[in-house]
């Protein structure tokens, strides 16, 4: 179909003028702006969706709860915040012009540099004019007679859209545990995921950090440098591999830019969206010398990819144990006090089954006299009062409290939006036993509602920038397919959803991942259903499946005309 014909086709799906009356939950009639697509969120995912859909000739409105673009990188401004995928890979690949013109200064960019990059892209592509900031989408309701959505915001806007794309982020609902007395604390409380914009100075202060996941582990060494005394409240120790961060030389940058196409190609085909391949042998097939050399090489690469040194490391406990022993040796070597080392070395889950943290001098920080590690496992936090934190053992007097307590991941943000599909079905009810999706892209009963980097996809197991691009590209192609053939909507079948959940579960159970109480499993949120929420089969494999589904005329989806 020629693009002009497609535009006519699309116009046929638009019902009425650009402002029309719609029925609301009550009997009120309200004016609604009409667009082809509402995109929720202006992080990496939502921004690319806006650009891509616009290029395709769609009218798009983006709503963003924050005052500006960036998503994760707008909010998570805590000291030490950086990416753990190399900067040169953790950026958009869709435009060679953009990737050639932007120059990363370090191997792992700071939050500040990533946010500057996102702002630069937003300006280069003139994205802001279609983004409404400081506006939260509160609900989206399907009109089954038109197969269109009525989207509502907390500022009272009502939008009539054919497509709704939830680019709301897998890690955007910060979690604050219900510590008794937290609200009575007399000092300042900071959450890593809602860090103030002004610099926070802990000089001369007694500071407590609760939480030792990636956010805690990145911030603790820097807070320790400032604070008069730092108390780290650790419930579960985590595996963390040094980042080996460093400035990128101009020669390195030039070399990467000259070979970006190849680098990206390897990333698209890889297990995790980065251009690094596992050792060709299985762990126990390698000689002890080869094994050690491979682990050393990955240790030098730094961070999270240590879990992918050998391809069987996350499947075989014996293989995993080899990696774990190597890890333990490295970590014990940098911690002075063996009792402290004992507390800092995980024993409750195989290495890599929770995301491996990426740090700079994290373990060395506990060699400082002004840093105290408190094991909340041994002496639980009982309450917080005006002056500090009481554990079962003693009271810690503090001036400031940092919560690095993570997120209600993958489903938490979506659950805050009142999404109503066919026959009044609520998405939260549909997912009450755990998220149900087909390919992580959508679910039955909710036609034309798409998810970006949500549950059922590799999402956070991959380089999330490429992952967002892949999802948006797939959605854009699906929309073009509908328009070319005169369909109004696309909706997964219930059978495809059930089969996909079963496949995700089966693949997860064949790995070691289900052995950890991770946020991938929903285990960090009290009462959340325990289900491995991601597709574990690898990024490249996942993309092949999505492409095969599309090539087969959207197998597992129903293509719908307006009834
Ligand atoms: P987000 O960036 O989370 O953006 C979602 C946006 O949607 C937010 O701005 C939010 O305000 C908005 N929103 C949500 N609900 C609504 C609503 N109802 N109405 C309006 N707006 C709404 N991944 C990697 O691959 N590599 C890394 O190195 C890496 N580092 C990370 C570091 C930190 C500290 C964190 C927290 C996560 C990190 N991640 C990393 C994961 C990261 O979340 C993704 O890489 C990526 O930034 C997600 O982009 P997104 O657009 O999907 O979501
Ligand atoms: P997280 O990994 O979930 O860590 C939260 C920490 O808070 C855990 O140590 C947890 O202990 C602790 N905690 C939660 N509730 C507690 C309670 N009631 N009492 C005591 N401790 C409690 O969250 P995160 O560190 O923010 O990281 C989440 C994800 O974001 C990462 O896995 C990663 O994907 C991404 N991220 C990436 C980077 C990066 O390096 N680029 C940085 C930050 C975040 P338990 O383990 O016992 O639950």
Automatic annotation (TrEMBL):
Residues 1-24 are annotated as: Disordered. It comes from the Bacteria. Residues 1-10 have a biased composition (Basic and acidic residues). Gene3D superfamilies: FAD/NAD(P)-binding domain. Its EC number is 1.14.13.92. InterPro entries: FAD-binding_Monooxygenases, FAD/NAD-bd_sf, Flavin_mOase-like. Keywords: FAD, Flavoprotein, Monooxygenase, NADP, Oxidoreductase. SUPFAM superfamilies: FAD/NAD(P)-binding domain (SSF51905). GO terms for molecular function: flavin adenine dinucleotide binding; N,N-dimethylaniline monooxygenase activity; NADP binding; phenylacetone monooxygenase activity. Its cofactor is FAD. Belongs to the FAD-binding monooxygenase family. This is Phenylacetone monooxygenase. The gene is pamO_1.
């Amino acid at each position: 179909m020629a693009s002009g014909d497609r535009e006519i086709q699309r116009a046929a799906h638009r019902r009425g003028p650009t402002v029309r009356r719609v029925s609301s939950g009550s009997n009120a009639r309200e004016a609604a702006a009409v667009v082809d697509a509402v995109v929720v969120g202006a992080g990496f995912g939502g921004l690319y969706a806006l650009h891509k859909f616009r290029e395709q000739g769609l009218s798009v409105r983006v709503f963003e709860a924050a005052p500006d673009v960036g998503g994760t990188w707008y909010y998570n401004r805590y000291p030490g915040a950086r990416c753990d995928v190399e900067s040169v890979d953790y950026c958009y690949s869709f435009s060679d012009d953009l990737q050639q013109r932007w120059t990363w200064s370090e191997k792992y960019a700071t939050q500040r540099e990533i946010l500057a990059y996102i702002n630069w892209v937003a300006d280069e592509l003139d994205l802001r004019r279609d983004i409404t900031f400081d506006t939260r989408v509160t609900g989206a309701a399907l009109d089954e007679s038109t197969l269109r959505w009525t989207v509502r915001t907390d500022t009272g806007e009502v939008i009539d859209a054919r497509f709704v794309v939830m680019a709301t982020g897998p890690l955007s609902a910060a979690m604050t545990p219900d510590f008794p007395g937290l609200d009575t604390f007399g000092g300042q409380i900071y959450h890593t995921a809602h860090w103030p914009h002004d610099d926070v100075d802990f000089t001369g202060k007694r500071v407590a950090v609760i939480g030792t996941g990636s956010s805690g582990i990145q911030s603790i060494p820097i807070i320790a440098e400032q604070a008069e005394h730092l108390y780290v409240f650790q419930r579960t120790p985590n595996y963390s591999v040094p980042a080996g961060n460093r400035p990128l030389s101009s020669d390195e940058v030039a070399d990467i830019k000259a070979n970006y196409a190849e680098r990206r190609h390897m990333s698209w085909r890889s297990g995790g969206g980065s251009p690094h391949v596992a050792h060709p042998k299985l762990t126990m097939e390698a000689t002890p010398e080869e094994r050690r050399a491979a682990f050393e090489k990955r240790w030098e690469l730094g961070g999270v990819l240590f879990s992918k040194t050998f391809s069987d490391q996350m499947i075989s406990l014996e293989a995993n144990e080899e990696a774990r022993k190597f890890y333990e040796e490295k970590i014990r070597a940098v911690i002075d006090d063996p009792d402290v080392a004992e507390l800092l070395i995980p024993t409750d889950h195989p290495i890599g089954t929770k995301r491996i943290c990426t740090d700079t001098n994290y373990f060395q920080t506990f060699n400082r006299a002004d840093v105290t590690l408190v094991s909340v496992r041994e002496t639980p936090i009982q309450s917080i009062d005006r002056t500090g934190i009481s554990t079962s053992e003693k009271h810690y007097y503090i001036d400031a409290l940092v919560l690095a307590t993570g997120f209600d991941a993958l489903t938490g943000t979506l659950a805050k939006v009142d999404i109503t599909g066919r026959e009044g079905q609520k998405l939260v009810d549909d997912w009450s036993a755990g998220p149900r999706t087909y390919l992580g892209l959508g679910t039955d009963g909710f036609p034309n509602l798409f998810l970006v980097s949500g549950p059922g996809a590799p999402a956070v197991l991959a380089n999330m920038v490429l992952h967002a691009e892949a999802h948006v590209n797939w959605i854009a192609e699906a929309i073009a397919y509908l328009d070319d053939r005169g369909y109004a909507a696309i909706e997964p079948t219930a059978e495809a959803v059930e089969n996909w959940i079963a496949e995700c579960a089966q693949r997860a159970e064949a790995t070691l991942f289900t052995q950890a109480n991770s946020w991938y499993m929903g285990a960090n949120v009290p009462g959340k259903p325990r289900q491995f929420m991601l597709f574990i089969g690898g990024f490249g494999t996942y993309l092949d499946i999505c492409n095969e589904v599309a090539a087969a005329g959207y197998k597992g989806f129903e293509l719908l005309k307006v009834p």
